[in-house]
Every structure is written in C-alpha cells, then in structure tokens.
C-alpha cells in the first residue's frame, strides 16, 4: 500500500493551524479548510507532472534537498502566529507554485476563490502556503527514507490515484492532467505508479536474433540479384 501524501498533509493542518491562517487572511476557517482540500490534490498533481521526466524530477529533488522542513513542519501553528514568519512562509511557497502548476495558477486561483467563497488574494496566499506544506511533507519522506532520485520518482508516481480521487471537477478542468503517474525519462525505463520496468534479457536476445536473420535474408536476395545481372 503506497504512502498517501495527501493524508499526511492533512495531519499537519490542525484546527489551530487553520485558525491562525484564517485570522491572518480574515477568512472563515471552514472556507480556508475547503480551499486547502481543493488546492492540495492540484498541487500534488503538478508535482507528478513535473516529475514525469528526469530533468523535472531532478528539480523537485533539489528543492527537497535544500529545504529544512524540520524547522517548521512539526510546529506550524507557532510559526504562523508570527506575522513575519507567516509572510516568509508564504514567500517561500510562492517560488514553488510556478514550478508546479505554471500558467495554470491563475485558473486555479479563480476557481478556488469561486468554489470556496474566499477572495482571490486569499486564494493566492493559500496556494503559496499549500506549496510550502506539500513540499515539506514530501521532503520529510524523501529524507527520512534515505531516497535517491529513483525512490523519489517512485513515491511521487504512486500518488496518482490519490490525486485523481481528491481532485475536484472544477480544478480537474483547469489542470487537464493527462498520463498522470507515468515517468518517461529515458528510453530504457518507464515508471508507472512507482514500479520500474526494464526489458528482460531474453527479449533483448530475441531481438538480436530477429535482426540477424533479417540481415542474412537481405544479403542472400542481394547476391541473387547480382548473379542474375551477370
């Protein structure tokens, strides 16, 4: 059974955390909670899409390696009580949003604001906060499990079903996820839902025999053609 990153994220968003965020943004706690429920599957889906090739996966790995989530992840409520730290936390996340969902961010912001009854400015803040928390949780899994790039890709790709189950219809239309959960970083390997596939030795050997037979037949036909001409 794969790790459910979305469930882990929810565990860090306690009622005290939601209350602090709501107070800072001057929004109702219930609306903030609803917005996060919409935002996180979209962001995690963005991580899957970004990690679908080697270059993108390495960018995610670099972010996770460089951040220090242990400083704040287990003490979010206290961190968010400090307005300076709150703004710094949002600023950190705002750097990640373009990387994860790119030009679709405006559509996500409009959709979340309309669906959850919050201001667009609040949706922007929640998207940034959500990116910080999500990458913090991913980073904790990546580091505590001692993962290399292949392990990180496997973890991320295994989130496909959780993303699709949690993604709202409205944001599904905005994000337009296709081939979610497939890694196609090289011709030699394909990760699907966190499982790596490598061509077997027997199938490679069979391919060599087929090519060899084709070359032999081609040479015989060529020699026959030359013989008919002379």
Name the helix and strand elements from N-terminus to C-terminus, one letter apiece. Answer: HHHHHHHHHHHEEEH
Count of helical stretches:
12
Strand content: under 5%
Q: Give the C-alpha Rg.
A: 24 Å
> How would you write the strand order of the largest sheet?
1-2-3
Mean pLDDT: 82
Number of domains: 2
Structural class based on helices, strands and sheet pairing:
mainly alpha
Number of strands: 3
Main beta-sheet strand count, sense and barrel state: 3 strands, antiparallel
N→C terminal distance: 71 Å
Task: Describe the global form.
Answer: globular
Helix content: over 70%
Unreliable stretches covering 5 or more consecutive residues? 187-211
Topology:
Blueprint: H1 5-12, H2 15-25, H3 29-50, H4 54-66, H5 76-81, H6 83-101, H7 105-116, H8 120-144, H9 149-157, H10 160-166, H11 169-175, E1 182-183, E2 190-192, E3 195-197, H12 201-229
Antiparallel strand pairs: 1-2, 2-3
Helix pairs in contact: 1-8, 3-6, 3-7, 3-8, 3-10, 4-8, 6-8, 7-8, 7-11
């Amino acid at each position: 059974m794969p790790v459910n990153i979305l469930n882990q994220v929810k565990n860090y968003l306690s009622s005290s955390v939601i209350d602090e965020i709501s107070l800072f943004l001057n929004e109702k706690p219930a609306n903030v909670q609803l917005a996060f429920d919409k935002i996180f599957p979209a962001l995690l889906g963005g991580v899957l899409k970004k990690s679908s090739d080697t270059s993108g996966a390495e960018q995610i790995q670099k972010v996770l390696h460089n951040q220090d989530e242990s400083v704040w992840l287990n003490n979010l409520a206290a961190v968010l009580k400090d307005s300076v730290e709150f703004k710094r936390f949002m600023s950190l996340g705002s750097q990640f949003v373009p990387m994860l969902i790119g030009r679709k961010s405006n559509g996500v912001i409009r959709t979340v604001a309309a669906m959850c009854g919050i201001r667009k400015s609040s949706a922007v803040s929640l998207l940034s906060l959500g990116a910080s928390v999500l990458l913090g949780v991913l980073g904790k899994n990546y580091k505590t499990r001692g993962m290399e790039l292949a392990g990180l890709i496997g973890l991320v790709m295994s989130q496909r079903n959780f993303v699709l189950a949690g993604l709202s219809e409205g944001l599904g239309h905005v994000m337009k996820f296709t081939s979610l959960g497939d890694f196609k970083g090289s011709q030699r390997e394909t990760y699907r839902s966190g499982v790596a596939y490598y061509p077997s030795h027997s199938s490679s050997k069979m391919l060599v025999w087929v090519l060899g037979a084709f070359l032999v037949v081609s040479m015989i036909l060529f020699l026959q053609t030359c013989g008919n001409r002379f």
